[in-house]
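ESCALATION

Customer reports they have been waiting on this structure for their group meeting. Please prioritize. Original submission:
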Amino acid sequence: MTLRIYGDSISGNCLKVKWTADRLGRAYEWIETSVLKAETRTPAFLAMNPAGQVPLVLLDDGRPLAQSNAIILHLAEGSDLIPADAYERARMLEWMFWEQYSHEPYVAVARFHHHYLGKPLGELDPKLFERGNGALQRLEDALEAEQFLVGGRLSLADVALVAYTRVAHEGGFDLSRYPKVQAWVARVEAALGIA
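Update from on-call: job pushed to the front of the queue and completed.
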């Protein structure tokens, strides 16, 4: 059985999985699964992932695995996307945990509500922008003297964080305020072969 990726192409969390599989040369079947059309709420999908979320993968042996960062960690096991040094590996994980807790809930949520649900920016919770801009500034500061987030080279930390950062403007964030972030996005996109 080939790796099967259930994902929504508008989701940065889903694209992380695609980009990681592509970077590693893993064969897979992409199964477009629309959140907006409630395709993650069907009985068949809920039987595979009771949380009703994408991304979801069915591994080569048929076992399901959910949560984008858990999936990319599993796929990249033993590859150069995970630092060999224990401290650098922990720093990569630190960024990945931070991404899901302090970046994605603001940047991605603002983007989803504005760009896909059509809500005017003025109707969104101002805390989304306060915290989202705080997250972008945290990245800007971290990239002051670094080309990538960990160890001077591409890792899963970059894959995880570029997913929504690169489209932050769709949620009302002005990336021109963060020139080091813009340059990093371009480096990561080039390294992953995405545009």
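Sent to customer with the following note: Strands lie at 3-7, 28-32, 56-58, 64-66.
Escalation resolved.
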